[in-house]
Amino acid sequence: MKLEYYRPKTLDEAVNLIMRSTPRTIPIGGGTSIRKPDQTATAFVDLQNLDLAYIHSEGNILKVGATTKLEAVVSAPEVPMGLQRVILDSYTKNHRQMSSFAGALVAGGGRSLFCAALLAMDAKFIWAPDDGVQLYAEYLPLRTKPEKKAFIKEVQIPTNIQFGFDYVARTPRDLPIVGGCIAKWSSGRTRVTLCGYGNAPICVMDGTSASGAVNAAMDAYSQAGDQWASSDYRQEISGKIIERILIQLS
Amino acid sequence: MDIQVCLNGRSRTFSVEANKTLLDLLREEGLFSVKFGGCAKGECGACAVLLDGKSVNSCSILAVQADGHKIDTIESIGQHPEQGWKRTDGLHVLQQAFVEVGAIQCGYCTPAMILAAKQLLDETISPTVQDIQNALSGILCRCTGYVKPIHAILLAASVLRGEVALKTPFQENGMNLPLDREMPEPEILDSGEFLLKVTPKIHTPAALQPWQQIGKPEPKVDAVKLAQGKPAFTDDIVMRGMLVAKILHSPVAHARIKKIDASKAKALPGVAAVLTWQDIPRVVYSTAGQSDPIPGPLDTFSLDSKVRFVGDRVAFVAAETEEIAKEALDLIEVEYEELPAVIDMTDAMKPGAPVIHDEAEYVPFAECDPSMNLAARIRIDIGKVDQGFKEADRIFEREYEVPKVQQAHIEPHAVVTYWDEDDRLVIRTSTQVPFHARRILAPVLGLPMKRIRVIKPRIGGGFGGKQEILIEDVAAHLTIATGRPVRFVYTREEEFTASRSRHPMRIKMKTGVKNDGTITANEMVLLSDTGAYGCHALTVNGNTGQKSMALYVGDGQYRKSPNIRFYADVVYTNTPPAGAFRGYGVPQGYWAVERHMEMIAHELGLDPLEFRLKNAIRPGELHPFSTSWSEGREPRPEIIHTVGLEECVSQGKAAIGWDEKINNPEWKAATGKPYLRRGIGAALVMQGTAIPYLDMGGASIKMNDDGSFNLLIGATDLGTGSDTVLAQMAAEVLGTHVDDILVYSSDTDFTPFDKGAYASSTTYISGAAVVQAAKDVAERIKIRAARMLSSPGITVSPADIVLRDRKAYAPDGRFVTLFDIGHNSLHHDQQEQIMGVASYYSSVAPPPFAAQFAEVLVDIETGMVRVEKLVMAVDSGVIVNPVTASGQIEGGMTQALGYAVCEEMSYDPHGKAREVDLENYHIFTADEMPELVTIFIQTNEPSHPFGVKAVAEIPMDGVAPAVGNAILHACGAEVTQIPATPERIWRALKKTR
């Protein structure tokens, strides 16, 4: 298959390329998309010249440019340590130096602790061309049939949260069989996510307090059986993991 | 489109298609240090390069993305300092450190590791071990266990900090190590030279003879080229007109091919050939790379009208490019008549089960019966087993299970075939068995053996996976069909779906024991799954019993006449075939035996190690299986002369702190987290060294004008360091240095026969051949030296000549150099070519022994286990090279650790594989490794000139049961199935509550 490749210098140029009706065109920011190639794409628009590699902190919001490499995130002082730890546990050094922040979020599967973390943090995508805002939680269920919105410019993450995570895997660097993440706001709002099963991480609770988090997790994974683990195992362990994270955060 | 990059310091412009990966571009440009690991998602990291100074996987980046960037490969890092009259800056300090420390085994991932390390040291010259583990985290190594690469980087860093100077591999290395020592700290000479190698502790009996070269930690003879990423591997070659091969694999587990139409594929421009079963001769054979006659059924065809597993072969394509070949595969129209499939081994022999091999050409071996899906059957009764059970006070029975696992060598299977100018077919292949490949392929290809030449370049890991004639026939058929060179390299997915693996087994143990711990009878009955073809079915499974059930003979009267039963049924299923994998059936057996022994010791309230040693075989005793079984050939009695097991236990216990931990509840309770428990466990194991009366290796040595020697061997170094060890043996006999032994292996046209690299045989068998050939050469050298040193009135006898330090000494201290002798023999006086040729086969297979220890941390709520430390004390006889030998132990323990906790291949009810990449099939990475400790307990095996036994396979045997026993110690969980996944431990824990 013959592929086209573009490396636009402006956002407008990139938007025009990606928004055209044919050929099917997708943005690329690092190595993630190439690792999981979209078989139907016939044109790539490389975002590397668009100055979208940045990390800014504004108030309680961390703004991470879409093409920021994961390695830059783990070494940036503005980034909460919990998020850095998740990235370090989830990606090898080579992958961190290739994969873009947004690309990793778009491509991550059901066993991605990184995606579960950003889902717990209620991350937002800022889309080109119109700076439209979309919650990551809204994007995930629809990503197999995405709305044509050009490309992600920025990911926004709240920093006024407590964040914790834990996971069970066969080895420390293996993909999680069950993973859990919790983000807690000072208001008491608590978001609980799970990963390890299915096509995407899931948010099992978004409440005004942590009350019910363990049960929510156990309920969410009560039918989560596959070739990697049984549902009764995942159910019990997801509750255990969430319980432990709550203790960490208390 | 055109791209401009700064490639290795030079501005270069390339015209590339947008879909070309950076990896493909770099290899097309001849930068063969950038390796293809077969993966599609950048899992292995062998293709890593520096992009703007950062280590990234070139397989996962489009070449066009690199436009305007700086790319460095290892070709720009350093090179040999002396290139004739030209001098260079020499090797980079990292390359030197990798060579010096012994951080290179197969060398396939070495360039990527060195580049990742270079990035790290460019950023900091004071890295911590954690920094290094992090830097290497994206580069998988299946050989080393990461111990020595990490140490090499620490060494390079200290050189860059100016703390030490590094000895270059091009200087004479005259280091001698003390015999009984640990070397955890660098040794810095007065000159500032850094002489640390990561050598293990070596315990040596005082009586052992000191040698000049044997026992020295020589750098590997191939290390310098591998550190430079030289084009040493099968696929590192470009030939004019070379085609790319691809296989169409079956999407169904069991079917007849009703119709196959390749016309559209053949019509595709750029396609040179498409072959189906209708196009090539129907020759039945076995893909097992073993000696003649193959001890197993002949049940395989290059292409058949029936497919027997998802991934089986349907058609071959050769095309101008990979893309065209892939497109052609999609154009082949196949109509399958699906048949019922057998996926679970327990269903294979049930009445009415589908018959997988119903072909008329099937050639059975021994007790196999394809009508019952039985690929091999073994029934061995030693002594009076039923009587032994009657005499027992207690009978212990339990069932154990082991999974199918993959060799996962980082270099995939690769082959290049072409016709030479004499119309002989040349097969350049990454094989462990070049001579078996030639013999087995000849009838398959319709060629006389003499018209086939097999060349084995360097091998990027094999571990048994390349003891198989797996893909050579594909390229060869296509070369025959097209007349053109053909290249064929497996993808990682093909390695998982269409290669070989370790046999999964279900094993029933029954043991009779007296109350004092004396074993009266021991029985193992196993069901094993060979997959769709029976390659290695009999021999692998025979070894399961022959090695693991031989260790415990019983005590007292039972020691004199042990009662042992071993029964095995090896069945066909519609899954990818099993085959040879390092350990060759023995790790499976030891999971059952050593878990079982632990359970018995606990039940009887005995010390588990004392119980084992009480019943273990001792020096001077008969190998109990030697009168009953020998890989499908006639068995002959064999006495075991050297058993270092007690010392292994003693040293291993001390190293892991056994006595302080085993009954220490405070140690077991990990601090801070109430749900964590520590545990410690052990396992004793024995392996074998070669196959007696069968395995043969040859060696040829010729002396050159300058006193150097060419050592030609058919033995195949697949990264183990065997070329180096054999060179050390030759150097010892010839009184020279390893630098002056030029090793070439192997080429069926030029090197003597060798059975190949398997059965832990090379150091022992091929080594003995090298020693004999060297002795023949030494004898000629001594005769000539005596003549040169004699003069009127002074007669020197050849028998009095001593060869040492590249000289031949007379008793009075006068000498002639090997250089002078070389010149004299070839040019000056009574000219002759000094050379020797020898071969060796053994009447014994002296077993190495080991005590394996493991320390674990178990989460008793989730079942997650972390292995924190592995200690292995090994009796492998005399250690020829402590660096290469300990590298074998470290790498083997790491593979075995994966077997213990995470590696597993499974299939859905339709036979489709769950694991097709190195993401889901997880092998250990640098940043999650436990501490590894290796201890050698030297014994002097009398059947070998230098007292050696095998070292390569035994580290696979004990880790899993030691980990299982440590889990039991930690939390009481009796896990009977590996890998010990969190859920399996969690379920076992539930049973204890």
Distance between the termini of chain B: 67 Å
**Structural class of the secondary elements of chain A?**
alpha+beta
Strand content of chain A: 25-35%
* Order of strands across the main sheet of chain A: 4-5-8-6-7
Name the largest protein-protein interface in this structure.
Answer: A-B, 40 and 53 residues
Instruction: Report the count of strand segments of chain B.
Output: 38
Number of helices of chain B: 25
**Overall pLDDT confidence of chain B:** 94
Helix percent band of chain A? 25-40%
The helix/strand series of chain A, from N terminus to C terminus, equals EHEHEEEHHHHHEEHEEEEEHH
Average pLDDT of chain A:
93
Sheet having the most strands of chain B: 7 strands, mixed
Structural class of chain B: alpha+beta
Describe it for me?
The complex is a heterodimer of chains A (250) and B (993). By secondary structure, chain A is an alpha+beta fold. Chain A has helices spanning 11-19, 32-35, 70-74, 81-90, 93-98, 101-107, 113-120, 136-142, 213-220, 231-249, and strands at residues 4-6, 25-28, 43-46, 55-58, 61-65, 124-128, 132-135, 151-158, 161-168, 178-185, 190-195, 202-207. Chain A contains ten helices and twelve strands. In chain A, strands 4-5-8-6-7 form a five-stranded antiparallel β-sheet. In chain A, helix 9 runs antiparallel to helix 10 (231-249). The longest helix of chain A is centred in the C-terminal third of the chain and has 19 residues, at 231-249. With 993 residues, chain B is α+β, with helices and mostly antiparallel strands. Helix content of chain B is 27%, strand content 21%. Chain B has a seven-stranded mixed β-sheet, sandwiched between helices. The longest helix of chain B has 28 residues, at 762-789. The chains are: A alpha+beta (250), B alpha+beta (993).
